Structures are given as structure tokens and as C-alpha cells.
Fold these 2 entries.
Entry 1:
Amino acid sequence: MELSESVQRGLQSIADPSSFGHSSFQVLVDVSFRSLLSSHADPGVLDQSELKQVDQILLKQSHTAATTFILEAVKQNADKSAISSCLEELTFSSERIEIFYSAYQVHFKSNNILNHIGRRPPHINDVSWRLNYHMKNEQVDKVNEPFYSISLNVEGEGSSEDINFTCTVEQLQDLVGKLKDAAKSVEKASQM
């Protein structure tokens, strides 16, 4: 598994018994899986009494690293040997690897974690548009300005709906620019 340096550092912190004792390690692993499976606001990693003694910044970094690792393992459908070898490289003891893998097996195998992670945002099925032209406004002043009527057909959570809006040429150009930036960001993130 390819992991960023920050994720590797976070996981090495989790592996370090001086940073996370036996019980705090188990709680962190459990909270990491629960935070991915929860569809509503969980009390959070910082609110766990067993983790109060851990530096809060280290705790946040470690929790982020653990959840990132879990998601990467799920994405690759990693087996025990892949998870074990990756965690061994990050200085995890065999006992901690076994605790982590047991939690992975319980949460992944019985719940299929990918089906429970958050809600999928609506996606656009179809777009229709029409160019209109404002000739006068309510005060009978000449406007002579083009504008677009746009309808987005979106589907989410099993239902379909139309989102309608109007915009000027400048607003449409701004929207297109922002969508291109977003597409580049997604493409860049998927290559990491």
C-alpha cells in the first residue's frame, strides 16, 4: 500500500507504546473504525476518556492516519498478509498487528465498510439549458442582457430531482471555471 509520509508518521506514532499504551491503542483502533461506520455524529476520538492523556495534536494526526489506512486497505481489499507486512514496516508489534487486523476483520467482513461510509452526494444525470434575453426590467428600462436558464437533473439516495437556476454569462463562466478547478483537484487527489 502506498501511504503518504504524514500517514506513515501517524501510524508509527500509533505503533509506539510510549505514545499509545495497550488500552489507548485498542480504543484508538476501535474509534477509528466506528468513526468510518457511523452515519451520525460520533462523540469523537478526542472525547474518549482512555485517550485524554495523549497529546491532542498527536491524537488527531494518529486518528487521521488510522482511518486513512483503513480506507486504503478496504479500497485494495487487503488481506491479512498485506496489512501485516505494511504495519510491520511501520514498526507495529505482532500483538498490535493482530489487534488491528481483528478489528478490521470484524468491521470489514461483517459490515462491508464501504457501504456504510457517509452518504454519497447526488450526481448529475443530465443538464439542459436555454439562452434567454432580458430586454426590459420592471421599471421599463432597457436592459438588453442575455441570461441562461439551467436545469440539472440530479440523482441521490434513490430519487431523482431537477435543480433549476438562472445566471448571467459572467456567472456561468465563473461556474464553469470552478467546475474545472474541482475536476482538476479530484484528478490530482486520485493520483496520490
Note: The CA atoms of residues 87 and 97 lie 7 Å apart.
Entry 2:
Amino acid sequence: MALEHPGTLRGRIVTLEPLSLDHLRGLQEAARDGELWKLWYTSVPEPAGMAAEIRRRLELQERGSMIPFAARRNDTGAIIGMTTFMNIDAATPRVEIGSTWNGASAHGSGTNPESKLLLLDHAFTVWGCPAVEFRTDFHNHQSRAAIARLGAKQDGILRSHLRRPAGYVRDTVVFSIIASEWPGVRIGLERRVAAHLPDGEDPGRLG
């Protein structure tokens, strides 16, 4: 059993495209934007390792455990990063949104909240997930704050959970949004996206 691939998810600020090796050059440039691979608490690949990372995600897609996307800004057409549905439990169904990174210049642009809006809307509205999960490194305070701003609630901390390439075993902070919380979370995300739209543009709902 597998969840049907949603295809391209289009928003007003960002478009999520099914990941392919055609995105390689754009993702290499996005990784250079801020040299995010140098942050020890993240898992952003270096440009030289980007092709291998794309292939890894596509292999997980073949196994049914991940649906990966490349994120593209609508205003410039530039690829800015990656995100995924991962740890897919198709029977429940339940998914995690994760393995996400965006180039530094996209931070604060509204692309991240709209990416989450697109993914969460599909998970709850189309797939009927009772819950969607988020996980991050205990030391990644920026990511933890961003997840909390989405409206997700912290479920707990998995201590000594995952060995990282930097040479330590991380504590993983687990958050989730459940279906009954989604209408309120959606309103909050729509307002955050609307704040980045040009004056006069209709900030109406997706679809």
C-alpha cells in the first residue's frame, strides 16, 4: 500500500516540484547560498554531494517511505531547497514533513510557511492523515522555533536517538499537528503567507 504522489504543489510564493536530477544545478547553487552544510546541527549536503543526496531521496521514494520535492521561488524561478514527506505510514495514514532546507536568501521570504501550508493541506485534506509529524535536532533552536510557529505541539524528546555525521548522537525533538488542530493552523499559515504577497493580491485559500 502506498500514498498517491501529489505531483507538483503550486502556491503563490513557492512551487514544490517532484524531485529529480534535473534540479541538481539549482540545488547546488541553493546550498552555496549561506553554506548551510557547515552548520553542524543540520544535514544540508555540500554541492559536491548533491547528486548523491538526490539519488538517495529518490531511492527512498521507490521504497515508498519518502516523497521528495525541490522548492522553487515563483518570483525569480530559482530553486531554493528541498523538502519531503518522509517516514510514510500509508496504512494509518501518517507522515512526517522533514529533511527540509532552504538557501539563506529565502529565509524570511514566506517560502517556508507556504511550503508547509501546501504539504499540510495535502496530508490532511487529500490523504486524510490524523496527524502530521515534525522532528529536529535538540540543538537546532532555529528549526524548533520555526516548527512551533507553525502551530505544532511538542510531543517529546527522543534522547540519544540518531548518530550524526558531525560525530555525536543527537537528541531528537518530536512535534505534531493533529487533524482537529489543522483548521486553526491553516488560518495562521495563510495569514503568514498573505503578509508576503504584493499589495492588492488576493490572499484567498489554496485551490
Note: The longest strand covers residues 79-89.
